[in-house]
Specification:
This protein has about 400 residues and is an alpha+beta fold. It is built from 11 helices and 7 strands. Strand 2 and strand 3 (about 155-165) form a beta hairpin.
């Protein structure tokens, strides 16, 4: 669809689109098969200046983001990457969202040091919270970290699961608690026990266990188990004040970013289906016409939702934007899943035979929409409308 953007926005998005089509999409099948972090893709993103998209202009970046006046461009870049590879888009989200946190909560010294590493060295960031405490029936591993105050900083002992970009990122923001295991989402301690600690992943006390990560989709996110063996984090690496991530609702500005990736999946499936059906001369089939029409409407609706939420962030209507972002994420999950299924129905069984891009989109999207529980998201939206207490970040009951 035709979206009104200024020339500089169009140029940045076109740069991402060109890379995605020529470089990222051809590499995606191999990264998917091997469940390997897309390191070449991030090298390309650094080469063309996109890796620093969220770094503030005063530190040499593009200055995109929810609190910088232009988040829509960021989300459209994410959509273009997702059209090529949802796993790449997830790793990119983790990088960008981490830099948003640094920009919002970091000290001037931290920003100077870490933003320079992104702009000058191409360093990749990610944020890790995952410490599920309820063990799945087939699992033998137990996850969780113990964070202890020591002279000059903290030590972290234990493991995190779903550690996206493990083995690929250079820095990770660890969401940990001095009250015990559980990260941010599964910890039962006080909010003030929650810390954000920047961890240098080259530290020899940090190791990656790739034996656990073997999912149906999103394989190239390399979301392995990461282990910490009394890893020391200096005081200078504490980001913000204790509990700030939860109290200030930082997760809410990232929720619609997931919707951008879902939209990329839907648009990629739609474009695949149009080309596939046209090559088979099936455009006159009325049922296929229905499937394509609904898919196009879904994609357009997703763009409108993203633009709607982006304008709220960009004009300072942050309280409205928080819950509107949840609506957009909920809506886009269902629109994307419907679109992919319609495209499969229109194209037939052969479209699910590897190395079909539609087959990979189907697997990746099926897995990625589980990132947050949509039932809980919808209940949170309902609570807000009915005046009930709720957490728009979905971190606490």
């Amino acid at each position: 669809m035709n979206i009104e953007l200024d020339p500089s926005q169009k140029e940045v998005i076109a740069r991402a689109r060109d890379l995605a089509r020529k470089n990222f999409a051809p590499r995606a099948p191999a990264y998917d098969r091997t469940a390997a972090f897309p390191v070449e893709d991030f090298t390309d993103l650094f080469r063309v200046g996109l890796l620093s998209a969220v770094v503030p202009r005063e530190h040499g970046g593009m200055g995109l983001g929810p609190y910088r006046g232009d988040v829509f461009t960021l989300w459209l870049i994410t959509k273009e990457l997702a059209k090529a590879d949802l796993s790449l888009a997830r790793c990119w989200e983790g990088h960008c969202n981490s830099l948003v946190l640094l920009d919002g909560m970091g000290t001037p010294e931290q920003k100077e040091r870490w933003f320079n590493g992104v702009v000058q060295k191409g360093e990749t960031w990610v944020a890790w919270s995952g410490e599920p405490q309820a063990r799945a029936s087939l699992e033998t591993m137990k996850f969780g970290t113990y964070t202890t105050r020591v002279k000059g900083g903290w030590t972290v002992e234990g493991s995190k699961a779903f550690a996206t970009s493990a083995g690929g990122a250079q820095w990770a923001i660890l969401l940990v608690s001095t009250a015990g295991p559980g990260g941010a989402r599964h910890n039962t301690g006080s909010v003030d026990s929650q810390l954000l600690l920047a961890c240098d992943l080259s530290d020899p006390s940090v190791s990656v266990d790739s034996s656990w990560w073997d999912p149906i989709g999103m394989r190239a996110t390399a979301s392995h188990v990461v282990r910490f063996n009394h890893t020391f984090i200096p005081e200078t690496n504490l980001i913000g004040r204790p509990g700030q991530y939860l109290v200030d609702g930082w997760q809410t500005c990232f929720i619609p970013h997931y919707a951008a990736t879902f939209l990329g999946a839907a648009e990629a499936a739609y474009e695949f289906a149009v080309e596939y059906i046209s090559s088979q001369n099936k455009t006159a089939d009325p049922y296929i016409q229905h499937h394509i029409a609904q898919s196009a409407i879904n994609v357009e609706t997703g763009h409108l939702w993203l633009q709607h939420v982006a304008r709220m962030w960009e004009t300072g209507r942050h309280d409205e934007a928080q819950l509107a972002g949840s609506r957009a994420r909920h809506t886009m999950e269902h629109l994307a899943e419907e679109t992919v299924k319609l495209c499969i129905r229109a194209c037939g069984a052969r479209s699910l035979n590897r190395p079909s891009a539609l087959e990979r989109i189907y697997r990746d999207l099926s897995f990625y929409v589980r990132h947050d529980n949509d039932d809980q998201i919808l209940a949170t939206i309902g609570k807000s409308l009915l005046g009930e207490r709720h957490d728009p970040s979905f971190y606490k009951p």
